[in-house]
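Obj: model holo form, ligand = CU-O-CU linkage.
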Amino acid sequence: MPLSTIISSTYPSVFSTKINPLSLSKNPPQSTTYLPSCIRSGRDEPSNKVNKPITKSSKPDKSLNNLDRRDVLLGLGGLYGATLGRAEAAPITPPDFTTCKTATDDGPPTYCCPPNTDKIKQFVFPSSSSTMRQRKAAHLVTKDMEYVEKYNKAVSLMKQLPDSDPRNFTQQANVHCAYCDGAYTQDGYTVELQVHASWLFFPWHRWYLYFYERILAKLIDDETFALPFWNWDSAQGMTIPHMFVDKTSALYNSLRDASHQPPTIIDLGSSTTSYSTDQELIHSNYATMYKQVVQKATPSLFFGAAYSAGSTAEPGAGSVENVPHNIVHKWTGDPNSPNGQDMGILYSAARDPVFFAHHGNVDRLWTIWKTLPGKNRKDFTDTDYLDASFLFYDENAELVQVKVSDALDPSKLRYGYQEVEILWKTKPTTTTTATTTSMLPTKKALAETSKKKAGEFGSNPRQLGSIIRATVKRPKKSRSKVEKENEEEILVVNLELSRDEFVKFDVYINVEGEKFGGPASSNFIGSSVHLPHSNVMKNMKVNTLLRLPLNEALEDLGAEGDDDVEVIIVPKAGKGEKITIKGIKIEIGV
Ligand code: C2O
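Output (holo structure tokens):
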């Protein structure tokens, strides 16, 4: 039997094996490993299933794919814990620029490798007496001509730097491309180094913006300069900020969706529900924000799955990365250009200056999330997280090594966010959707409904061509308030996605018939959204996990005492062979 068959046929057993729930988030199961486009030597087929040594013969191959890792863990009799597991794991190390490869060949080949240098400095914090820079909401500074001019000038100067200067505008956009499109292989392994769809998403992008901002500040010789943030979570900020749509500005980019220009309001949940008024859409956006930020009360739900040295790429995106982050990318890019450039596909996304305002807001949500109530709203403490490190060129064009632990506190990096009103912290009501309150089924009716069971998902992978329904057993029911505060009941969907196309599906629980509500509906528990990486990732798949919290939904539906949950998966974009559901389970954890 080929190894791939063995791997996938053993897959479902993960879900029936009783292991410490932490081990799933720590080492999410992966059935296959696909080499990144750049080292596939032009082949379109996945060329390898295990992590083999690469050409750097002096380095031992430490590869341990996630299947191996899991076997190691299970071999330990399920005793996986901080020390036992860590013996096999290690933090992600920075890329080796000398082995960087052409990352994409969309149209003319795009080479996104940075200039190389032997000199690497360790990061040093700015002095604690240096200026504290404030990132402001773009829509609130759009009339501040002095600021907009300054920002415009800084970006123009960046565009005028020689092509070979690592601070040059295109070089800076390429930093993102290289870290997301398979240009780098993890040092000592054959697996790709990837900064999306894992716990590296937030800290890597924080560092990226940090250096980008320092470069702009240096170019205009203004220590106080800070990037603006696209405040898409506030009613006034839900359109592309004006400073980016002025065609004469360096902040303008022509590859955007012409039908999404101001005053068009973004649909953050991309819910395909039609809204009869702007107000309805805005409320739906607040509901999306509530679900993605407030309801995701544990680190793994918010930040994403663990990703250590030797792990295969994209073990699982956190809530905000999925939605609204990926949705905003897709919505902004030009649907008439290949794969929605620039913002709609990862390799080109940072060529659009609005990328940095978008990520300013993503970064801001990290700071807000930590201030919300809940004992688990903390950064990870795992050293595989804290010691993970990256390389960036700084404002002096010197290469700097940074680590995740130094990114956790923005005030140490001497920046912060303007405080603006936040209207999504409270639980949304369902009255803004098409269904009026009186038509909503009662809790009892919903509980009854959930008793009309669909079959279990079973062990065979299924392509998501149409709606999938499955009854999923709960490990524990009627948990106490304290138990629920300590740990979340989490629905885990194991899936395989295409890396070359935009895909999205929504997940509901206990819905009778096909009346699916919008983001405010209690039955709606979340979405999986995946952006394409580049056109050469054609036919490449990624195995990943979607994890969604159930505590609040079960309370709202009066279903806490049920033995099982009926899960309904509704495809929205990229059907059929683009999405394969491999398993569904419920676990209790953080
Ligand atoms: Cu690195 Cu918004 O993507």
